[in-house]
Amino acid sequence: MTTAESRARARAVADAVLYEGYLLYPYRADARKNQSRWQFGVLGPEGAAATGLGEEPALSAQCLIDPGENPQLTLAVRFLQLQRRQVVDADGTPVAELADGQRSWLSWDEAVEQEIVIGPVAPANIVRPLRIPGGTDTEPIAGRSGSTGGALVRTRLPLAGELALATDQDDGYLRLTVVLRNEGAPATDQRDAIARSLIGAHVIAEITGGQFVSLLDPPPAAAAAAGRCERRRCFPVLAAAPGDYSTLLISPIILYDHPEIAEQSAGALFDSTEIDEILTLRVLTMTDAEKAQARATDPRAADIIDRCEAMTPEAMRQLHGVLRDPHPEPARLIPAVPEGFDWWDPLADSIVRPEVDAVSVAGVLVRQGSRVRLHPSRRADAQDLFFAGKCARVVSVHEDVDGQAHVGVVLDDDPAADLHEWYGRYLYFAPDEVEPLEGPEK
Q: Residue 254: CB partners within 8 Å, gap ≥ 6?
């Protein structure tokens, strides 16, 4: 994967984070679930949390950098700025809704994407102010006769924030502390507080001349330092493709390292806890009146309705029945169950044969007769630990219904090995718990 592709992948995930919960099915302003929005990554103005008007003003995260000779950081601070859309009639009077035939316009809170890029800078103690101006825009509404029937007045309050970086050393690694804070004027009420908030706030950090260290699965040498990293109101994860440690996403939502948007997902639905197929089918069951109300609520809702209505049967089939393993690149049986066969299909029994199937471990095909050294780890119990470092002979390779491979062995120095093999009483280990004693196949 190229640098550009890896960056686009991270950006796609960040966009999903930015708009998570922005507007939920049925995508209408009158739906109860859309009366309370902006649930994730909201940084309120100073004092809003203490007075019960809004959220706390800051998020902070510590992460580890394995520095090279000249590490350089680029940080993109991203959030939504609330944009209040007020409908006014032909006399300039604010109204909740304006209708003209089958079309209608609603007063509603939209949002404008904001991004401030800082860097490249060397890791150091840095404080950078963030300033977003307010503004007012007016869009006339043309009536059926062509005359002006009213207007949409969009208003944004100015926002002020601060990004602070601090660095220190820990076990040979560089610990970076990132603090994003809202420093806007105090709010007068709840509506004012959300209008002065940074919504869906997160940070994309990229590094050259070094690499970020996973805090979820750090290398052994970094485990202690990773355990000392603290975070508040956010979750820092590696955001580029697996094997690429150049990008970190400081997310307000809990994610795995190297998250990605499903390739079958045709576009944002603003609810990543749902299944695209289910939401699409729900949208298609909406009445014409409900769809019209959704389109009037928000331009992004209109895009969802239009996209779902234009979806082809082939595109819909792409959303159905896709099962993903959350573990990247798991060891797979050779041969695996071919595409088109389910594990419960009786025909699969004639395809998968534990006595001859193999699994690749460190470039070696481990199968019946292979000799391995045992290294119990993940699922090791007290009995398994007795076998650490012992040599064994593989007698079978299996795959369970979750797609996980298991290697059955008998110990070389077990005097009852032949008896255990005859009865089928094997010891089972995961592929990453066995070390092949033969070299890689040519």
A: 235
Pick from 410, 414, 413, 409: which is nearest to 397 by CA?
A: 409
The structure tokens listed for 434 are: 């066995």
Which residue is associated with the tokens 């750090």? 218
| Residue matched to tokens 């302003």 | 29
Q: pLDDT at position 42, please?
A: 95
Single-letter amino acid code for the residue at 50? A
Query: Per-domain residue ranges for the chain?
Result: 3-318, 333-436
Q: How far apart are CA 145 and CA 134, in angstroms?
A: 34
Neighbours of 195 (CB within 10 A): 23
Rounded to two decimals, the pTM is: 0.71
Angle between helices 276-284 and 299-309 (to 10 degrees): 90
Report the mean per-residue pLDDT for the chain: 86
Task: Convert the pLDDT of each residue in 411-434 to its tens digit.
Answer: 999 888 888 887 778 899 988 899
Which pLDDT band holds residue 75 (cuts at 50, 70, 90)? very high
pLDDT level of residue 197 (50, 70, 90 thresholds): very high
Measured N-to-C along each axis, helices 288-297 and 299-309 cross at an angle, to the nearest 10 degrees, of 140
Contacts by 328-331, CB closer than 8 A, 24 or more apart = 328/242, 328/258, 329/242, 330/403, 330/404, 330/405, 331/359, 331/360, 331/361, 331/405, 331/430, 331/431, 331/432
CATH of domain 333-436: 2.30.30
Burial 161-181 (b: 16+ CB within 10 A, else e): bbbebbbeeeeebbbbbbbbb
* SS3 (DSSP) at 262: coil
CA distance 115 to 163: 13
